[in-house]
């Protein structure tokens, strides 16, 4: 059982990453004009008429307004050009030009920081555009109104209303590019409103519109699709669209700040697939870009991402280093970011048992808790963990009650599960073991519910993709059939004109065509009936196969959970024991159960239900043992392991052998805290033969040791498990101890699988 609720589940960590969607979902990239300003000035001088000149002046003004940086000279230039455009449009009574100039004037005031004046001008532009039935300009104003709303739920709902009206008006005005842009923005806000399926549907429509006009810079929209699939826990599709965004950006030679967002999404996608090295690498790339551009908001958001990921890996020192890297030069500017940073500092120092360093951050978090409900999840979790780790579990119950009330209002299963885990830890620290077990069991129930809900969301997303592909395929098929039908009609006309001179021949030919058509229809009906029968049988087989795989995953999932509960119960029981031998026996049992639990965990998380990747397994098992003795031993591990897959029947005994051998080595090979090295080698040779070697440079076995006469449970267990593998077990005590096990791969399961395929 993890010692803190903050990183108790990968799904919780993903929840903590949702705040970054504000960075990666709402892509605030100002639309800088693609045209060269010098070329625009030449076009203005050579304009064919004043109306065209007014439009060009507005375009050039917009260029200077949205130019990267916030130079006063650019804003002044934009203001001057827009005034010229407004005066010229008024003189010409060019209503579209007047409306655009009014809107641009409002945007200029907003850029200057004159928010109230800007909003007043925006509402005036909206009234003018509606009065004069300027559909596209009205839609532009609705998009501008979104800038005056924040990211609280009511504000997001207002933005959605504005953008839905804008999409409708762009469609009526046949402004395809602007319609696609508005659909993309609308999808952003539906994603923030947790309607991710709706967001994906809008993004698919936007992609279709972009492609219809040959627009190739789709990296931004692919990034949004990656984010929505990530929230839906569809890690594969999330990574697919993140990589597609990266590829597209490279193809169009994008050199904009948008790379920061792309790398951030790649980091999130790799995190969901447990590829932490790639996640770290992409987060670092995103952070470097944000630092180069001195974007304080993005620096804080990505820094929090990195720190959260370090916390998930229990590397709290690295999390603290990450936050301190940007703390001085890029202090958080918004309240939620300040709270998240206080949260990481409080939890990290608390988990490192540095209570004095954690206390100032805890006190600031407590102060903000008393001031408002912003970021309540972070505040409550941080406060409770600090009190637990500082020996004050009794004080946590009041905050747990507040957490329960907050969770009921949000109706979020993740919150419910988090509360039960925090309550379990408080009860355990307070020695309320009966209540602790109940909370642990309830936490597991919520955790299972979250697991099943995520699977349902994933299947829904896959169904949406399937239906979209099916629709496109049907459209292509209908077009091909239409072409075939047109060709057939043309041929019939030619035949009719050729045989027009002979009525008898025409009748015979028509009869022949009728007969052949009737026979063809009959044959087609028979083929269609057979096809339907085959499709039904295939669907039944797919359903049965899917149910079988789901049941197998559920079994492994339940077995793993039951083993984890038994480990927790043994841990609780050990609190009542003072006998060192009994405590050691319980600890050994916990290690053995964890060795088996890892196997079932891997099986239910993987698509392959029959074999285990032993290189992954050995790495995870050794990491677990290192963590168990990290404060007591100074031992380094060297691993040389091939990527080998074994079935469960061989993986379980081999895992138990590894557990016994490495635990015995850590306990007895290096007495008095001396340093040492343990080498683990697992190699495959010819004819499905495998060799496992665990060696150390410790004290070795006594000179009078006789393996046949020993009463050691661990040694006898390893020999018995080796017999179960039908292998050879040898010991060599020279400059340490070397255990060698040779065995062959069990090919019975492979043979059974081959027989099933043949049938």
UniProtKB/TrEMBL annotation:
One of its GO terms (molecular function) is ATP binding. It comes from the Bacteria. Its EC number is 2.7.13.3. It holds the Pfam family HATPase_c. Gene3D superfamilies: Histidine kinase-like ATPase, C-terminal domain, PAS domain, Tetratricopeptide repeat domain. Residues 554-747 form the Histidine kinase domain. SMART domains: HATPase_c, TPR. Keywords: ATP-binding, Coiled coil, Kinase, Membrane, Nucleotide-binding, Phosphoprotein, TPR repeat, Transferase, Transmembrane, Transmembrane helix. The keyword DNA repair does not apply. Residues 519-554 form a coiled coil. TPR repeats lie at residues 260-293. Signal peptide: none annotated. The chain crosses the membrane at residues 494-514. It catalyses: ATP + protein L-histidine = ADP + protein N-phospho-L-histidine. It is an enzyme of class 2 (transferase). This is histidine kinase. It comes from Chryseobacterium cheonjiense.
């Amino acid at each position: 059982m993890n010692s803190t609720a903050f990183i108790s589940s990968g799904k919780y960590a993903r929840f903590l990453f949702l705040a970054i969607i504000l960075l990666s979902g709402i892509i605030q990239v100002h639309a800088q004009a693609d045209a060269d300003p010098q070329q625009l000035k030449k076009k203005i001088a050579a304009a064919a008429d004043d109306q065209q000149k007014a439009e060009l002046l507005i375009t050039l003004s917009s260029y200077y307004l949205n130019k990267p940086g916030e130079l006063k000279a650019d804003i002044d230039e934009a203001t001057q050009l827009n005034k010229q455009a407004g005066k010229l449009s008024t003189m010409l009574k060019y209503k579209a030009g007047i409306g655009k100039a009014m809107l641009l004037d409002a945007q200029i005031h907003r850029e200057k920081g004159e928010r109230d004046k800007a909003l007043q001008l925006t509402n005036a532009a909206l009234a003018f555009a509606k009065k004069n039935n300027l559909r596209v300009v009205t839609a532009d104003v609705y998009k501008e109104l979104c800038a005056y709303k924040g990211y609280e739920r009511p504000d997001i709902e207002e933005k959605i209303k504005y953008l839905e009206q804008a999409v409708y008006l762009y469609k009526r005005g046949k402004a395809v590019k602007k319609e696609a842009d508005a659909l993309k923005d609308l999808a952003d806000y539906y994603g923030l409103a947790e309607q991710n399926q709706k967001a994906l549907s809008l993004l698919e429509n936007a992609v279709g519109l972009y492609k219809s006009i040959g627009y190739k810079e789709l990296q931004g929209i692919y990034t949004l699709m990656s984010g929505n699939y990530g929230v839906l826990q569809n890690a594969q599709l999330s990574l697919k669209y993140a990589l597609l965004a990266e590829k597209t950006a490279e193809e169009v030679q994008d050199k904009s700040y948008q790379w920061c967002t792309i790398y951030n999404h790649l980091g999130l996608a790799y995190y969901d697939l447990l590829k932490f090295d790639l996640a770290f690498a992409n987060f670092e790339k995103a952070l470097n870009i944000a630092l180069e551009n001195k974007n304080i908001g993005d620096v804080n958001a990505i820094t929090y991402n990195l720190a959260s990921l370090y916390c998930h890996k229990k590397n709290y020192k690295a999390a603290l280093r990450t936050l301190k890297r940007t703390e001085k030069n890029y202090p958080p500017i918004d309240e939620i970011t300040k709270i998240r940073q206080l949260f990481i500092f409080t939890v990290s120092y608390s988990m490192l048992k540095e209570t004095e360093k954690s206390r100032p951050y805890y006190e600031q978090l407590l102060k903000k808790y008393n001031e408002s409900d912003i970021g309540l999840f972070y505040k409550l979790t941080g406060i409770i963990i600090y009190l637990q780790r500082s020996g004050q579990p009794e004080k946590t119950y009041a905050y747990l009650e507040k957490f329960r009330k907050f969770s009921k209002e949000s109706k979020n299963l993740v919150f419910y599960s988090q509360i039960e885990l925090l309550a379990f830890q408080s009860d355990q620290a307070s020695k309320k073991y009966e209540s602790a077990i109940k909370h642990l069991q309830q936490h597991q129930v919520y955790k299972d519910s979250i697991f099943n809900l995520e699977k349902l969301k994933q299947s829904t997303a896959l169904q949406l993709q399937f239906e979209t592909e099916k629709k496109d395929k049907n459209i292509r098929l209908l077009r091909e059939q239409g072409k075939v039908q047109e060709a057939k009609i043309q041929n019939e006309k030619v035949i009719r004109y050729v045989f027009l001179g002979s009525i008898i021949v025409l009748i015979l030919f028509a009869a022949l065509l009728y007969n052949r058509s009737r026979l063809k229809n009959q044959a087609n009906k028979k083929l269609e009936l057979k096809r339907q029968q085959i499709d039904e049988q295939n669907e039944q087989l797919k359903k049965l196969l899917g149910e079988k795989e789901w049941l197998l995953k559920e079994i492994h999932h339940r077995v793993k959970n039951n083993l984890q509960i038994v480990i927790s119960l043994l841990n609780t029981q050990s609190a009542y024991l003072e006998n060192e031998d009994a405590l050691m026996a319980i600890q050994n049992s916990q290690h053995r159960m964890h060795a088996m639990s890892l196997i079932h965990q891997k099986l239910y998380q993987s698509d392959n239900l029959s074999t285990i990747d032993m290189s992954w397994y050995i790495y995870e098992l050794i990491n677990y043992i290192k963590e168990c003795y990290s404060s007591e031993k100074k031992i380094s591990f060297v691993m040389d392991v091939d990527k080998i897959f074994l079935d469960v029947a061989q993986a379980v005994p081999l895992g138990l052998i590894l557990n016994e051998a490495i635990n015995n080595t850590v306990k007895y090979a290096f007495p008095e805290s001396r340093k040492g090295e343990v080498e683990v080698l697992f190699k495959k040779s010819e004819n499905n033969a495998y060799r496992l070697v665990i060696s150390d440079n410790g004290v070795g076995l006594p000179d009078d040791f006789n393996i046949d006469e020993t009463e050691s449970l661990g040694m006898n267990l390893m020999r018995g498990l080796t017999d179960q593998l039908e292998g050879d077990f040898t010991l060599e005590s020279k400059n340490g101890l070397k255990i060698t096990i040779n065995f062959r791969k069990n090919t019975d399961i492979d043979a059974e699988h081959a027989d099933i395929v043949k049938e």
